[in-house]
Amino acid sequence: MRSLSAMFALGSFLGLAIATTTSNPENATAAYPIAANLSNVTLRASKFKGGWDLQLKLSGQDKFPYKTEFTEFTGGNFIVQAINANAIDIGSASEIPPIFAIQSQGAVKIIASVKGPTVGQVVLIPQNSKAKKFSDLKGKKIGYVKATTAHYFLIKMLAQEGLTLKDVNAVPLTIPDGLSAFRRGDLDAWATYGYAIQQAQKDGAKVLKSAKNILSGNFTIVAAPSAIADFLCRIQKSQDWQASNIKAWSKNYAKAIGVDETFVLKDAKEGLKQRRSQVLPISQQAIASQQDVADTFYRAGVIPTRVDVKPLWDGSFTNAINKCK
């Protein structure tokens, strides 16, 4: 059973493989010979708990003409690291993790963007917290997920109050470690995202502030130079199914993450009301949005030098994504 990397190297990967970065990433194209048989190809994809694999299965988009292996991650930062280590081929992340890969000269490339809702990005406080507004957290211990949207929106929320990371005791934690610390009462607040919010709310956690209007809603699909457009199209079709079957999806997702369906359905409806998720080809607007995020991290002193994000983006799948639409 060959990995996609091996197939790419042999030149027998079908005409959907990603090309190397070009000088004009938005208009890049790829052309490879079409493989007659993909049964020996394995796509190594990332997933979040209750993520791509569940969505593809529920929507009937999991009948692949190639083999797939899903590995679960808790954050896009770990997905980018895994791609750079050649442990997986494709995954999803916010705009932020690839920025931190630039200085390490990683293999990761952004091959598509996903425009989606931003409701699942918040700062939580314990049920018995006396904090009423974000400025009440000055000098307090705040957990966050480093090199992710949580890191970014925490900086932004502090700036809105005239504060910086130096004005709080900011503690970088993974999602599982952050949830454990929050449940133990070791944190005064927790900047987090995704399924962890519902799990904390099950224990009585409250939302102090949402990043809904801070984040751009631009997420990315990242890959090493070895991924296929068929998978991107299936992701889009599964997102369309999810939007049209929100109750069925919420029931299954709630079961997957172990929380009450009420929490999931409420957030899903709010997210759908904000915007419908869709896979998009890369664009100058998406690149500019990520550049603004990178500049924010530079100004905050999180990264030592200003970086240019444009080389991260590869438009080899533009035509394939547009055809999928």
Order of helices and strands: EHEHEHEHEEEHEHEHEEHHHEHH
Average pLDDT taken over every residue: 86
Strand content: 15-25%
Oligomerization status of the protein chains: single chain
Instruction: Give Rg in angstroms.
Output: 20 Å
How many helices does DSSP assign? 12
- Low-pLDDT parts are 1-36
What shape does the CA trace take? globular
In angstroms, what separates the terminal alpha carbons?
31 Å
| Order of neighbouring strands in the sheet with most strands | 8-7-9-6-10
- What is the share of helical residues? 25-40%
Largest sheet: 5 strands, mixed
Q: State the secondary-structure class.
A: alpha/beta
DSSP strand count = 12
Task: Walk me through this protein's architecture.
The protein is α/β, with parallel strands linked by helices and 325 residues long. It has helices at 4-10, 52-58, 76-84, 97-102, 149-160, 175-184, 195-201, 229-244, 246-257, 261-274, 284-299, 318-324, and strands at residues 2-3, 41-47, 67-72, 90-94, 109-115, 121-125, 141-144, 169-172, 189-193, 206-210, 218-223, 278-280. It has a five-stranded mixed sheet with strand order 8-7-9-6-10, sandwiched between helices. It has a four-stranded antiparallel sheet with strand order 4-11-5-12, sandwiched between helices. It has a three-stranded parallel sheet with strand order 1-2-3. The chain is globular. 48% of the residues are buried. Mean pLDDT is 86; it is low at 1-36.
